[in-house]
Design a protein that fits this description.
Blueprint (H helix, E strand, L loop, with lengths): L18 H4 L9 H18 L2 H24 L5 H14 L4 E8 L4 E7 L16 H15 L2 E8 L8 E8 L1
Antiparallel strand pairs: 1-2, 2-4, 3-4
Helix pairs in contact: 2-3, 3-5
This protein binds zinc ion.
Zinc ion binds next to loops.
Length: about 180
């Protein structure tokens, strides 16, 4: 289930297990530092064993699969893109992932600019002039693609780590 070779993504929501059953005393939350410990050591390891380009692809893909799963399991339906972003905004707030806002909404060209404040992945990190929220790029693309049936490319153009103190993502429909 978890350790077979595969050519396609096989993640399913129930792979996350029954947390209520499994953690009756410790519950459903942990600390941000421990979440980041997992993410940044995994990134370190992925780069060490492959290369930066491949590691970035792995994180984008993982974010994409997560975004798809989040839409299918936690959002499920939306009347239009504004409703979708509003539902995603509530979800990210409820889950303490970040404070999402839609900064630009060009429905004619299906081009959107989204910002995330207090981002789970990067807010408070040392500055390195690198936009590092690749997982989030994939996640936003996964949510948008699954809802619209179109293909979006998402790029983080500003990040806490570039000195902006906010993450800004541009999402553009690709042909
Ligand atoms: Zn960022």
């Amino acid at each position: 289930m978890f350790l077979e070779d595969r050519d396609t993504f096989q993640f399913e929501w129930d792979h996350l297990g029954n947390i209520e059953l499994g953690r009756p005393n410790l519950g459903n939350t942990t600390s941000v530092a421990i979440y980041r410990l997992m993410q940044y050591t995994l990134r370190d390891s992925a780069i060490r064993h492959t290369d930066v380009e491949t590691a970035v692809k792995i994180f984008y893909d993982a974010g994409y699969t997560s975004g798809k799963a989040i839409y299918e399991n936690l959002i499920q339906s939306a009347s239009d893109v504004n409703d979708l972003i509003s539902k995603l905004q509530n979800l990210l707030k409820t889950l303490n992932i970040g404070i999402l806002r839609m900064e630009k909404c060009d429905l004619q060209n299906m081009a959107f600019t989204l910002t995330v404040e207090e981002d789970l992945d990067c807010s408070g990190l040392p500055m390195h002039d690198e936009a590092i929220c690749v997982f989030d790029e994939g996640l936003i693309a996964g949510v948008l693609d699954t809802f619209t049936g179109m293909a979006f490319e998402v790029k983080e153009v500003d990040c806490w780590c570039t000195g902006e103190r906010i993450c800004r993502f541009e999402a553009i429909k690709v042909e």
